[in-house]
Amino acid sequence: KDRPGQPPSETDHLGAAPPQPPDCRNRRRPKPKIRSKQISNLPLNQTEMKKHPDNGAIASSSKIRFEHSEESDESSSGEEEVDIENELADIPFEELQKARSDGTLAVHRKSNSEKKSKRANKNRPVEMSSKKPVSRFREVVQVPKKVVRDPRFESLCGKLDVEGFKKRYNFMFEETLPAEKAELQKLLKSSKDPEVIKELKNRISSIEKQLKSDSARHRDTQILAEHKKKEREAAKQGKRPFYLKKSEIRKQRLIEKYNDLKASGKLDSYLEKRRRRNAAKDRRFMPYSRPTNEE
């Protein structure tokens, strides 16, 4: 029990004194770790401590405390130097040498993702890491890149002479394709296999389209040549030139075709065929009749 005149002691209900908090005065706080990128923040050694005596004197004025702080600083600096040396061991020597030559003490460590494989010379192979597995589809022998040259847009092939090209290859539309069409028509009459017949019909239709497009192109060139001839004569008289559009060329082509059909007597059959074709096109877009439920 407590004596009279004295303050009561701090005890719990069982009579035992509560645990006291630890004395934090003698405990040393851990110093923050120095970053590996900054070599300029290294701790001072003994020679530098002699040059700067104020660093130790700031902590305390007594000799014992000064020696104790000096020993603790040396132990902590030794541990930090070991950590920095371990971290700097991973940095390549070239980067350290570059940092020294530039006069900068900070060394930046590059991540592995930023490292790209480069070749010392364009004729040498790329140096790859031996730790990574080589793919099966690796290009062992480096073949020079294939350069595709289009003669239509290549200056080395010269300029295209349209009239000369038509004169040189005019035999294809006048002799070769008509002869091939006649031969295919003979084979079509004698063949009985449905697949062969279908293939022959497709080839004949493609030849007919080629001949038709060539004749239309030939008419367009004739129309343009006649129009240019007229415009030259008009320009000599002081008139302004008029350039034909594609729509005007198409109209003149239809007029010439109409006159040719009328002269040959095939105009009525041609118009009847066009009416049936247009009626079939219109019939495709007409809606079907809905079924009615008759009850």
UniProtKB/TrEMBL annotation:
Residues 37-47 have a biased composition (Polar residues). One of its GO terms (biological process) is maturation of SSU-rRNA from tricistronic rRNA transcript (SSU-rRNA, 5.8S rRNA, LSU-rRNA). Its main location: nucleus. It holds the Pfam family RRP36. PANTHER family: RIBOSOMAL RNA PROCESSING PROTEIN 36 HOMOLOG (PTHR21738). Associates with 90S and pre-40S pre-ribosomal particles. This is rRNA biogenesis protein RRP36. It comes from Opuntia streptacantha.
